[in-house]
Amino acid sequence: MQKVRLYDTTLRDGAQGEGISYSVTDKILIAQELDKLGIHYIEGGWPGSNPKDMEFFLKMSKKDLKNAQLVAFGSTRRPHSQAKDDDNLKAFLKAGVKTIAIFGKTWDLHVKDVLKTTLDENLKMITDTVSFLVTQGLVVFYDAEHFFEAYKANPQYSLKCLLLAQGAGAGAVVLCDTNGGTITSEISKIIKEVRGQIHIWLGIHCHNDAGLAVANSLAAVEAGSDMVQGTINGIGERCGNADLIPLIANLKLKLGVDCISDEKLKELTKISHFVSEISNLKQRNDQPYVGASSFAHKGGVHINAVMKNPKAYEHIDPSLVGNHRRILVSELAGKTGILVRAKELEFDLSKEDPKTKKILQLIQKLEHQGYHFEAAEASFELLMNRAFKKYKRFFELEGFRVVIEKRSDKKISSEAIIKLKVKGAKEHTAADGDGPINALDNALRKALKDFYPTLSQMHLSDFKVRVLDEKAGTAAKVRVLIQSQDKEDTWSTIGVSENIIEASWQALVDSVEYKLLKDKVDNGRK
Fold first, then answer.
1. 37 vs 352: CA distance, rounded Å
2. Segment 105-136, tens digit of pLDDT
3. Each residue of 147-182: b (16+ CB within 10 Å) or e?
4. Which CATH class, in words, describes the domain spanning 338-392+458-526?
5. What is 5-260's CATH number?
């Protein structure tokens, strides 16, 4: 069976997509999920270009990845300089990674018009950069930028760029369809011509400007590529990159290529939704394999046929990728996900247990209202605990008020006043904040700190809001996703309401209660 290495660039190329901005915490969470999925290489960013990416690499150096190698990205040295003196290359050494992806020019048009240097100097830049990094004990992947345009314009020169990188010790050369405009038949033809002269790994990196990124990547594998690069959900600059979600599924299920295990394949839907939430992007219902509509049936003829034999209208069993069939005229949802999660949380639950049906109905009701638990695992765990009556609330809200004041000569100020009942005592306190939600969070924890001291160890690390029905205007429901963390863990909670303060309050309460529950704090209630 042909083996292909999966190379994810969500955290670098994906982060260049319009409207996407990852915090360091976001990047760490995504990297950990990619590692669990079984991705071989995770490109984390360009450590020499900005402090955030360097912070990410330094923090990740303390994390233990089980399956993936972390990769730092950067460019060849500048013209008419030396690699050993290049600050961007020195940053790789500080980042603490073992694998480096270096992009360089292979198109003579770019060398002359963009770099403003000679073809010979560009060749020296490639050789000097790759050999310098190899002598530092690093594995180097050479990304041949704009390779397909380059090869069509000047095949001898572009191929020489690859051969020099190979000769300098690169572990792989990656052919990039940077403008995303190459036709699939051209990809196949060029890969076959190049493959015979490259004796190291040959990778493919496609952009989706012509809507062909996944097809081109699959064609490259069939033509001899050993490595496929892409992003989760195809996010990225302009029209995005090759979408690793259908790409992985097609490699496994259509081409029989060994890239991840069958068990990990079942996690595709989960990680696709997770990255959408963290990226604050709406999940595409029609996304192949993992979208909510991928295996949804509405037409009467389709429903009748698929209930008799699923193969009639389904090209695969949806459970292979962690998805499920939906019959839209009478919505049906599976219990498997609930049972699996219940087992992980050590709850005694079976398919026949009436409580399973009750929980399923509750989840269906909440998701219909706009809840989505894929990226709010803490809220789901609390839901399960409440269903099993494993704990009682740590406090009761009697009321809160949020005041926002704007004066002509000052910035906006926010204050939250809150009344709680905690362990039989009444607490009435107030706190300021940078905004209404920050003020409410400060007031809540101020009221609870004497009763539950461990709350001082946690803080909110991210806050995202999504409008669920844009057509409703200012009356639309919003979904609030909050990330919190302490010294050991990071967790996410969710709230949904037409009022952003109410949705935020729901997520805040879940965040605090999850912290206390996981710390096994006594709430003083029987």
1. 31
2. 999 998 999 989 999 999 999 999 999 999 99
3. bbbbbeebeebbbebbbbbbebbbbbbbbbbbebeb
4. alpha beta
5. 3.20.20.70
